[in-house]
Design a protein that fits this description.
elongated, 68 residues, Mth169, Chain: A, 28% helix, alpha+beta
Length: 68
């Protein structure tokens, strides 16, 4: 297994901040990219793991997956 770094942010939080509002559940810093490490066999597996932890239907956007 290798370590991969996933760049993720939350579009809903970004949109709320642009409108001068705040997300009810997530901190404002989710408008910025967070870098999270995952252990996986390849980038596709790392992306799948990230999508489970950061679901698209909750506003998360995975911007990049790269070897750490």
């Amino acid at each position: 297994m290798s370590t991969f770094e996933v760049a993720v942010y939350n579009k809903t939080v970004r949109d709320k901040l642009k409108a001068g509002e705040h997300h009810r559940e997530l901190n404002d810093d989710w408008a910025d990219i967070h870098y999270v490490e995952f252990k996986a066999e390849d980038t596709a597996e790392a992306r799948r793991k990230a999508e489970i932890k950061f679901p698209v239907d909750q506003g998360f956007v995975i911007e990049a997956v790269m070897p750490a």
